[in-house]
């Protein structure tokens, strides 16, 4: 994992991406779910209800909207599985890459 992360960071940095570190605990669900009791890990965090994140997508989109045009994160995420087997993971690591579709207002063409 160390070698993969080092190589990934090197390549993405050379391509102009910024590594971001996003929260692993949120006060809200980060993905839509039908039944939170069966699909997410609720926790108590400083006396408040919170969840282990299922995805960093919403955080990445907020950073793109704030003007960070090329970002990535390497982070764990959690999802409850109905079965506990070697084929069902509750914790996994992901490489999430996000690029803005445009770099400035000059990229917008009236003819498109």
Overview features:
three-stranded mixed beta sheet; three-stranded antiparallel beta sheet; 112 residues; 3 helices; alpha+beta; single chain; globular
Write the layout of secondary structure elements.
Elements: H1 2-14, E1 18-19, E2 25-26, H2 36-39, E3 42-45, E4 48-52, H3 57-65, E5 70-78, E6 91-99
Parallel strand pairs: 1-5
Antiparallel strand pairs: 2-4, 3-4, 5-6
- As a whole number of angstroms, the C-alpha radius of gyration is 17 Å
Strand order of the largest sheet: 1-5-6
Give start-end ranges of low-pLDDT stretches.
none
The helix content is 10-25%
The overall pLDDT, averaged over residues, is 84
H/E series: HEEHEEHEE
Helical segment tally? 3
Write up what this structure looks like.
By secondary structure, the protein is an alpha+beta fold. It has three helices and six strands, in the order αββαββαββ.
Question: How is this structure best summarized?
Answer:
The chain has 112 residues and is an alpha+beta fold. The protein has 3 helices and 6 strands. 23% of the residues lie in helices and 28% in strands.
